[in-house]
User: Which sequence fits this backbone?
């Protein structure tokens, strides 16, 4: 199986690149942000729980997020692989993901981290807020909270995968196709 963690701060281009990767490698896309948003739209219990955290730009608690991810994994028993987009965002989530995959006799192939500097991220998020109407992309304070959450809680996830020699940094600044080529190149190297 090919199991990729697509990593990076909010606005790094994970969603855009995920779409291209799933089309090329026929992977199941698991975006925890998309799943939470679908639950909010559907007014489910999970959606109600996640909403207050998301509205403030805070991470949804690990237990809630991990349980949700586990049940999403179970929905695709025949997958050729997964692309994890926006997950794991804490070291506890990363450890839980390793255990879940191990119980299915598989593992993370590599963690591809899109690297983009903070000022560029803020510009991109505000633009996306205008175009998509996503509330958490429209307010500079909420955007700052999301970037702070990333720096404080999510960055250490890099070390988790670096310790397994699975971390690969990718320059996330440039043309979409250029960045996609860099990602494909890393995937080719990690599956050799
Ligand atoms: P995203 O679409 O990935 O930017 O996620 C939007 C929001 O959903 C985040 O700001 C968090 O509030 C929540 N979220 C998404 N994924 C996670 C995760 N793995 N852990 C905790 N919260 C998450």
Assistant:
């Amino acid at each position: 199986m090919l199991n990729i963690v697509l990593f990076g701060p909010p606005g790094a281009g994970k969603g855009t690149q995920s779409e291209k990767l799933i089309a090329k490698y026929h992977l199941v896309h698991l975006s925890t942000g998309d799943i939470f948003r679908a639950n909010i739209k559907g007014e489910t219990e999970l959606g109600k729980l996640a909403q207050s955290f998301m509205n403030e730009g805070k991470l949804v608690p690990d237990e809630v997020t991990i349980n949700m991810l586990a049940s999403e994994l179970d929905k695709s028993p025949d997958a050729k692989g997964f692309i994890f987009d926006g997950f794991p965002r804490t070291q506890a989530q990363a450890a839980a993901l390793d255990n879940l995959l191990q119980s299915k006799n598989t593992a993370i192939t590599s963690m591809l981290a899109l690297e983009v500097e903070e000022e560029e991220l803020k510009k991109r998020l505000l633009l996306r807020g205008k175009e998509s109407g996503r509330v958490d992309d429209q307010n500079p304070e909420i955007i700052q909270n999301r970037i702070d959450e990333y720096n404080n809680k999510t960055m250490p996830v890099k070390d988790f995968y670096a310790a397994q020699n699975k971390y690969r940094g990718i320059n996330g600044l440039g043309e979409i196709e250029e960045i996609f080529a860099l990602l494909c190149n890393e995937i080719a190297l990690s599956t050799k």
About this structure: Residues 10, 32-33, 36, 53-54, 57-60, 65, 86-87, 89, 93, 136, 146 surround adenosine monophosphate (CB under 6 Å). Residues 118-132 form the longest helix (15 residues).
